[in-house]
Design a protein that fits this description.
Shape: rod-shaped
Distance between the termini: 142 Å
Largest sheet: none
Number of strands: 0
Helix content: over 70%
Order of helices and strands: HHHHHHH
Number of helices: 7
Oligomer: single chain
Length: 194
């Protein structure tokens, strides 16, 4: 019986030692948190939102497992969160590069249209051309803001602004054409009554 007590005592001591040694995976949790922050800093919230949300969910699961003292599960979830955050960062970089290329292509298509219409508006020497000239000036200012946003890496914002800009380009083109038509239409003179 004393051997059994010794074995039970030794087993309890070993179990107590194992429990005392079990600790939260703080390094893995910190690494996952830092990876998510790095992905967000790299634009993952905008360019890979689903991947970012998945990484954040995995980190939340790791935190829940730590709270439940499931440290082995927490470590696995933290490692998973880190891997998903790194994938989100890579996806964000690829998606940002694609957005940049698409926006740059759109800007290259619109710039000559803008330059042509600004020159056309400036060359109008007819009555009623003031609005077209003002619109051309306003478009030039908007273009400068778009270029600044592009230079600042705000490709999603630029993409949305280019849609509006195209609409305004089309409106200016119509305005100039109408002003030219009005100038080309001869004014009928009224015959005076005698």
């Amino acid at each position: 019986m004393s051997t059994l007590r010794c074995l039970n005592g030794a087993a309890l001591a070993a179990l107590a030692l194992m429990l005392a040694c079990a600790k939260p995976p703080t390094q893995e949790m910190a690494a996952a948190d830092n990876a998510i922050k790095a992905a967000i800093q790299a634009g993952a919230k905008d360019y890979a939102p689903d991947d970012t949300a998945t990484a954040e969910t995995a980190l939340g699961e790791a935190q829940s497992k730590v709270a439940g003292k499931d440290y082995k599960g927490a470590k696995a979830a933290a490692l998973d969160a880190k891997a998903k955050a790194e994938a989100a960062g890579a996806a964000a970089a690829a998606n940002m590069q694609a957005a940049q290329a698409q926006v740059q292509q759109g800007m290259e298509a619109l710039k000559p249209q803008l330059e042509f219409l600004v020159a056309e508006a400036a060359g109008l020497k007819i009555k009623g051309a003031d609005q077209a000239k003002a619109d051309a000036g306003s478009l030039s200012e908007q273009w400068q803001a778009i270029v600044a946003d592009f230079s600042g890496g705000q490709f999603l914002a630029v993409s949305q602004k280019l849609v509006e800009f195209q609409t305004r380009i089309d409106a200016l083109r119509t305005s100039i054409e109408e002003a030219k038509k009005a100038a080309a239409t001869p004014v009928k003179k009224r015959k005076g009554r005698r």
